[in-house]
Design brief:
219 residues; mainly alpha; two-stranded antiparallel ribbon; disordered N terminus; DNA-binding; TetR family transcriptional regulator protein; DNA-binding transcription factor activity; transcription cis-regulatory region binding
């Protein structure tokens, strides 16, 4: 079981004890956060509680209160972690692609987002909750993800601008909604509106269609 306390019977050299405490606390916090994310991804909010998280993390539940302030603080921490998720899964480098137009930028975002969501069970859960559960916890997670994506787009676009007369906010919302629905439908039933989403070739077809949609609007 994880425990932040240092063995009082040991005889660490001078200066070792503070370092060990910091290291143990950091490991415990990471274990708690990972356990909470795993529990949410597998079972949702229905079975999401302090006791369940503590059991999965292998720690005393009091440490969750101490480090996160309870369940609400843990949800906040997961929300903050979503910003890291966007940074890690949707990198801000161009990946060898020259972003000469706004269309280039949105094509890259669409493809990276499609791939990232396909490979993240927790994020798929959050997407499903957004359209089925109107709770404060779900809203906080949804807002954190949306904010992180918006910041990514603002940082990456620089001087790139959509064509005149195009409502980019509306178009991007529809593109992102299409990506999210494809991923959820593929995970749930392996198809969407007659389009098979089971094999890598199926997903390549979906990605090609997304690129054509983006280019059809943005050129």
């Amino acid at each position: 079981m994880l425990n932040e306390a240092v063995n009082l019977n040991s005889s660490p050299e001078a200066g070792d004890e503070p370092e060990r405490r910091v290291r143990d606390r950091g490991a415990t916090e990471r274990a708690i956060l990972a356990a909470a994310k795993g529990l949410l991804a597998e079972e949702g909010f229905q079975n999401f509680g302090i006791n369940a998280v503590a059991r999965r993390a292998g720690c005393d539940k009091q440490l969750i209160y101490r480090y996160y302030g309870g369940l609400d603080g843990l949800v906040e921490a997961i929300g903050a972690d979503l910003g890291t998720w966007v940074r890690d899964r949707i990198p801000e480098d161009a990946g060898g692609m020259f972003l000469l137009t706004y269309g280039d930028l949105m094509e890259r975002l669409a493809l990276l987002l499609l791939d990232a969501l396909r490979n993240d069970p927790l994020m798929r859960r959050i997407l499903a909750w957004e359209v089925s559960e109107n709770t404060e916890q779900v809203r906080r997670l949804s807002e954190a993800r949306s904010k992180a994506l918006a910041l990514w787009l603002d940082r990456m676009r620089g001087s790139l601008a959509p064509p005149k007369g195009v409502d980019a906010a509306a178009v991007n919302a529809v593109v992102i909604a299409a990506i999210q629905h494809l991923v959820l439908a593929g995970a749930a039933g392996g198809q969407c509106a007659g389009l098979s989403l089971k094999t890598s070739k199926d997903w390549e077809k979906a990605a090609t269609a997304l690129k054509r949609l983006v280019r059809g609007v943005y050129g």
